[in-house]
Amino acid sequence: MIDSAKVLTSERGCSRIKSIYMFLQKIALQNFRNYTLSVFDLEPGVNLLVGPNAIGKTSVVEAIHLLSTGESFRANKIGEMVRFDQELARIKAKSDDDETLEILLNHGVVVGKRTKKRHFILNGAKKRKKDFVGLFYSVVFRPEDMRLIEGSKSRRRKFMDESLSILDWRYARSLKMYEEALLKRNKLLWQIKEGFVPETTLKYWNLTIVKHGTYLQEKRQSFLDFFARVEFPLDFAVEYQPSIISNERIDQYQPKAIMVGRSLIGPHKDDFIVKLANGGKKTNASFDVAIYGSRGQQRMAVLWLKTCQLQYLEEKSEQKVLLLLDDILSELDSAMKEKVLTLLEGRQSIITSADDGAIVEIKKHLKKINLIDLD
Looking at domain 4-137+319-373, what is its CATH homologous superfamily? Predict the structure, then answer.
């Protein structure tokens, strides 16, 4: 068996990738999901992965997104990505700049020894996650994203957090610190309610969630403000609905929070709504797409959000973003497909599809495609 550690090699020193034209040339998967060992050659333009359902197309997209963000968009636990009955999985990619990016995944024990479940490696040197994430940027568009508009608030908060975390390490740290402090505060609120500890035990945790929560909400507002600058066929707008956190509001809501045993305000309650100008034209009247929009308008709104996300990442990072379209074209009508295909221009993209009709349509619109048949 070929050792995937030797499939992709680099002799260059350790340095961050900065070229706005950087693209992935190869990606190797070893014991990742259903793959034993597979190597894929990628082109700088459109790469179309075709094959029947359950063959592993989404796993390739997941691996690339993992190299970009450090996180999986579908695994609840790191060990879920390791092939059944194996200890270790490896994802390894080589860029046109001859940089080698690698992530090792395991269940927490390798050869009988406890270890971190995830290791990040750049050109053979181990890196902290924050020094690895953002070597290149990606936006993934999946059928599940179609519920972004009318789905749960948590989906929309995750949408904001993903882009901000990869660009801003301070944001990622504040998000982690806020979530940890929130869990501790909620536990104390319940203990105070039951009479086990005094209310004064909340003081430190109140200060912590206000400090980090304020930063999160400032960055979320700035992120959504950017969307007004994005051109799109329909006149969408986004309205941030923060659950404002401050020392004053913490004090105001604390008696009720103790009564119910959980925190009632803060970024964990944030949401946003997408509005469309009445009739799709620039007028003073607009409506909430989640409530009053047609199914087609809701889907166009999701596409608008993804377009905004992509343009935000490109402007802030000054890099071209890799676009990942995972079996999404079969979900779209002709107008949306045409808009999506225009997003492919000037950047590397990975498209997966099991739909023969969608594949034929892609080939009609795009002159040059790197076809990868997984069947």
Answer: P-loop containing nucleotide triphosphate hydrolases (3.40.50.300)
